[in-house]
Amino acid sequence: MSTIGLMEGAFFVGRKEIVDWINSTLDLNISKVEETASGAVACQLLDIMYPGQVPMHKLNWAAKQDFEFVANYKILQTAFSKLGIERHVDVDRLITARYMDNLEFMQWFKRFFEMQVHDKGDYDAYAQRCKGKGKVLSFYRIFSVLHVVLCL
Fold first, then answer.
1. CA 70, CA 62: separation in Å to the nearest integer?
2. pLDDT tens digit string along 63-122?
3. Whole domain around residue 97: which residue ranges?
4. What are the phi and psi torsion angles at 60 (to 5°)?
5. Does residue 102 fall inside a structural domain?
């Protein structure tokens, strides 16, 4: 998928659209694209595209340190290699959580995802995340539980 070049429309997608897309696709509640620096979001997006090809149980959703981020990116790179996806992932730049580096990678990922996936079917993003370490709760799932409790 190295055919997605810099002048591709993918790289003109704004921060808000990327964040909204990630939140709706993965049932998350991130507020900044820099929150994708751990690599876990990219791994889960790839899991939607190629079910069962990403070892979700190895992902660390609670990663805070660079070495933990690197471990997540190793999972992503291994899956890329296994699937024949030719995309260089500049881990050293992404793990610094700089806005522009993470935005460009997520812009590329969004375009790559849209070229491959037309319907994510019955993929349960929350259940898949629960397989990993440091399970991240879904804002929407918490809200719906609160809603049910309040409605009783």
1. 13
2. 999 999 999 999 999 999 999 999 999 999 999 999 999 999 999 999 999 998 877 788
3. 9-151
4. -110, 100
5. yes
What residues have CB less than 8 Å from 81, skipping those under 6 apart?
Answer: none
DSSP H or E run through 135: none
| Cα gap 110→112, rounded to integer Å | 5
In a domain, 15, yes or no: yes
Evaluate if residue 151 carries a pLDDT over 60: no
CATH number of the domain that 91 lies in? 1.10.418.10
And the tokens for 14? 């704004």
Interior CA angle at 17 toward 135 and 132, to 5°? 15
Tell whether the model's pLDDT for residue 147 goes beyond 70.
no
Rounded Cα distance between 126 and 111, Å, is 23
Residue whose token pair is 């070495």: 67
Report the number of distinct structural domains present in the chain: 1
Name all contacts of 27-32 with Cβ < 8 Å and 24+ positions apart: 27/125, 27/126, 27/138, 27/139, 27/140, 27/141, 28/125, 28/136, 28/138, 28/139, 29/138, 29/139, 29/140, 32/99
Give the pTM.
0.83
- Strand extents, DSSP E, 8-122: none
